[in-house]
Inverse folding.
């Protein structure tokens, strides 16, 4: 039985897993203590719950529980990592290296830092979305203090060679921050093996609650220090003051444990569903293009451009399915996806893209329904598309003099 | 973004979607926009012997509002004289479809498409009516 609307936008957020929600409940009204209260049982109980969550999280990413700093989410974690390192290491240098396909939480933070005298190198990516390691190595100078490269891209799911980046950073004595918001819980993450010094991630992408995230901050080899963004009380080893959001942290911990226990089966199941969806679409339609690396990508990600059809109108035709598009019309800026543009995808195809983000609660039946529905909607819009008509008449659309507006 | 009922209606049941023979001298064709910008409209009209627009068709690559703007334009064109058609303003499309400010460019494109189709028709017929050299 299908229930509508179908949610297939799991890169944006995920539903809280019922098992996660169940462990959170008592921490709202029964065990509501402040984890910083050291002199009564309410406080101890809350602190114990936070400690357990820290362990659950640490286990998933292979770090020491003391290296986890709780934040409000990955955006704050990215801000804390970048601004905190810049402030703490300003006497060592003022240069940061990142990639043009990073999330706005990194890019916009770096834009602000540039106004304060920081120099940023933005690495290009190849047509599959990967950075080039030789370009990274070549960009490092004696003023470089930090490399910030994401683990997996939120639009195209491409997984960067994180362990190789970690090696380069280590060999050159530069810190490595990794925005792993889309990767943690979905693919194996090991901050030791990957040579990561700082790592941002959040609960709501992994079937936990919104409003809580973490920054992993390495304590040994090297001991990394970040200046806080928020002062007051010295919580989280002085790096992030403010009363801990205990119920959310408990949920975050549980979400990590569930992901860790089920990662292999879940990734296998989602890869099969994703390939099935891709198969339906590629069998049912001509002129569709996969965006991003064909294999080095998240198990649940599918990003496709449908030539001659505009993304927002396509989403309108899929009104019982929650998806997102790289079309300009779906953004505030009226520019098509900068991630797709960076891969060299033409603006026309960037406007024509859909992102499918499969998740724990999607079924094969849903995938079959969405596949059919996409095919129907694309066919209907192509009938309506002057571009499709021209292409079928043999006109080369690139040779047409368009009226820009 | 949520769409007005009028936009949803035109999107789900577009009026006059299709093509007319662009080589027919009584047909004017206007193609405006660019694929890189995310919208291209083709608007065609056929002018009858009485000087009134007898038929109009559109095809649009673009968002729901662009589709609705061109669909509505074809409805309005039918029965109008060329001069009347030239008077259609994008602001009338905006209010008829309750377009939000971010979608006003869709209505501008529809107005441009009407004017381009009329120009094409007039261009064709100016040539046809030109005196034959002795």
């Amino acid at each position: 039985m299908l229930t509508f609307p179908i949610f297939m936008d799991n890169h944006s957020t995920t539903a809280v897993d019922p098992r996660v929600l169940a462990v959170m409940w008592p921490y709202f009204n029964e065990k509501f203590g402040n984890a910083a209260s050291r002199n009564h049982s309410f406080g101890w109980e809350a602190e114990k719950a936070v400690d357990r969550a820290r362990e659950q999280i640490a286990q998933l990413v292979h770090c020491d529980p003391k290296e986890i700093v709780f934040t409000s989410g990955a955006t704050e974690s990215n801000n804390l990592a970048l601004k905190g390192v810049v402030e703490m290491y300003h006497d060592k240098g003022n240069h940061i290296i990142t990639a043009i396909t990073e999330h706005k939480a990194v890019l916009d933070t770096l834009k602000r830092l540039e106004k304060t005298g920081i120099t940023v190198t933005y690495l290009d990516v190849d047509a599959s979305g990967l950075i080039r390691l030789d370009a990274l190595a070549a960009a490092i100078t004696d003023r470089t203090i930090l490399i910030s490269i994401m683990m997996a891209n939120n639009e195209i799911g491409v997984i960067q060679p994180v362990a190789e980046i970690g090696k380069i950073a280590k060999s050159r004595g530069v810190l490595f921050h990794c925005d792993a918001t889309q990767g943690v819980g979905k693919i194996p993450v090991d901050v030791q093996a990957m040579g990561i010094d700082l790592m941002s991630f959040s609960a709501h992408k992994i079937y936990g609650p919104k409003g809580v995230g973490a920054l992993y901050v390495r304590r040994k080899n090297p001991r990394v220090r970040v200046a806080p963004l928020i002062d007051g009380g010295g919580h989280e080893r002085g790096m992030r003051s403010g009363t801990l959001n205990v119920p959310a942290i408990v949920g975050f911990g549980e979400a990590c444990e569930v992901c860790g226990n089920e990662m292999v089966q879940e990734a296998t199941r989602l890869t099969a569903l994703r390939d099935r969806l891709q198969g339906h679409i590629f069998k049912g339609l001509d002129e569709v293009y996969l965006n991003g690396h064909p294999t080095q990508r998240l198990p649940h990600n599918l990003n496709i451009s449908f030539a001659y059809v505009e993304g927002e109108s396509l989403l309108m035709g899929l009104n019982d399915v929650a998806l997102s598009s790289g079309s300009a019309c779906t953004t505030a800026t009226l520019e098509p996806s900068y991630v797709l543009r960076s891969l060299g995808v033409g603006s026309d195809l960037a406007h024509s893209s859909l992102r499918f983000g499969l998740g724990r609660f999607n079924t094969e039946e849903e995938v079959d329904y969405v596949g059919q529905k996409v095919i129907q909607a694309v066919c209907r819009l192509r009938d309506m598309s002057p571009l499709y008509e021209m292409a079928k008449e043999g006109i080369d659309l690139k040779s047409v003099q368009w009226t820009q507006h | 973004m949520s769409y007005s009922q009028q936009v949803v209606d035109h999107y789900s049941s577009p009026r006059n979607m299709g093509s007319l023979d662009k080589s027919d001298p009584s047909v004017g064709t206007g193609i405006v926009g660019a694929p890189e910008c995310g919208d291209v409209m083709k608007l065609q009209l056929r002018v009858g012997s009485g000087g009134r627009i007898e038929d109009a068709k559109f095809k649009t690559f673009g968002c729901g509002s662009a589709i609705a703007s061109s669909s509505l334009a074809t409805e309005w064109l039918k029965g109008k004289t060329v001069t009347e058609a030239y008077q259609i303003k994008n602001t009338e499309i905006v209010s008829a479809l309750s377009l939000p400010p971010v979608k006003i460019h869709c209505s501008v494109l529809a107005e441009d498409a009407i004017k381009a189709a009329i120009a094409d028709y007039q261009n064709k017929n100016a040539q046809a009516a030109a005196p034959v050299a002795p």
About this structure: The interface with chain B takes residues 308-310, 312-313, 316-317, 327-330, 334, 336, 346-348, 351, 383-389, 397, 402-405 of chain A (CB under 8 Å). The first strand of chain A starts at residue 6 and ends at 7.
